[in-house]
Specification:
Blueprint lengths: L2 H5 L14 E5 L7 E7 L2 E12 L12 E8 L14 H14 L11 E11 L4 H15 L8 E9 L2 E4 L3 H4 L9 E7 L5 E4 L10 H27 L2
Parallel strand pairs: 4-5
Antiparallel strand pairs: 1-2, 2-3, 3-5, 6-7, 6-8, 8-9
The chain binds cytidine-5'-diphosphate (CDP).
Cytidine-5'-diphosphate (CDP) binds next to helix 3, helix 4 and strand 8.
Length: about 240
């Protein structure tokens, strides 16, 4: 570790690779077919799964497979500056990329002409909402009994000046020093080296990607432990 690294302080006071406290709970929406809550510090995501059920209108059905439909919603009161209710470009983009992140582990070929709806509600936001949403959705799909090869774990990396940091909060995401703000959300199949999502907002040198993948792998191991514990709690009830 360089002298410079030792002196760097995250706005949150956390160590460079220290994650926020995580919590997960399965079965939080009794009327849904599956549901879960996942938190990174002050970011709270709830996911509820409905289906598989017949897709309407009929012309949207696919006779060769079921369809995954994600709707991510950052609620108006979840952020300090009230957000106008309803969908916008950001929520549409996050809904789509959440579908891409989750689909590789789903085995829904045996549900032709159906849709599996995943509603993700961010009830409190302090950055990392898409990654918390993916973690919650992965648990909710498992809870709904949708055939899955594995769970999906997701976390965002970023930079504090030139140093990589994990699981940024809003102050850290907005940090303007050094090379500027960088947000690097990732999702991967648990216990594997397969990534299902890599996004980049900001700048990163290509030779540092390996470093990012290593840090993401370590973070995802911790996320997976939290997810497994939450699923076990509901199975043992
Ligand atoms: O939440 P995530 O980091 O996945 O996505 P983002 O688009 O980079 O948003 C970062 C953070 O900005 C959110 O988590 C919220 O804390 C905040 N935000 C906000 O205050 N108002 C909005 N309309 C959208 C985001």
């Amino acid at each position: 570790m360089t002298k410079e690294t030792k002196e760097l302080k995250r706005p949150s006071g956390r160590g460079l690779t220290e994650m926020r406290q995580m919590k997960a709970k399965v079965g939080v929406v009794p009327n849904a077919d599956g549901s879960a809550m996942f938190t990174f510090g002050n970011t709270i995501a709830i996911a509820a799964v409905y289906g598989p059920r017949q897709l309407h209108p009929q012309h949207m059905q696919d006779p060769s497979t079921g369809i995954l439909r994600v709707n991510y919603d950052l609620l108006s009161f979840s952020v300090s500056e009230r957000k106008k209710p309803g969908p916008n470009r950001r929520s549409q983009e996050i809904s789509k990329m959440t579908e891409f992140a989750l689909l590789p582990v789903l085995d829904i070929k045996d549900f032709p002409n159906t849709v599996i709806d995943v509603q993700i509600y961010i009830i409190q936001a302090d950055a990392g909402t898409r990654t918390a949403g993916i973690n919650a959705a992965s648990l909710a799909l498992a809870h709904a009994g949708i055939p899955m090869k594995n769970l999906i774990c997701s976390v965002a990396l970023g930079k504090l000046d030139k140093e990589l940091i994990i699981d940024l909060d809003k102050d850290e995401e907005d940090f303007e020093g050094g090379e500027g703000p960088t947000d690097f959300p990732l999702a991967k199949i648990a216990n594997s080296d397969q990534f299902t999502l890599i996004q980049l907002d900001g700048k990163i040198q290509p030779e540092r990607v390996k470093e990012i993948i290593d840090l993401a792998n370590k973070a995802c191991e911790k996320i997976y432990e939290v997810q497994k514990k939450a699923l076990k709690e509901v199975i043992e009830q």
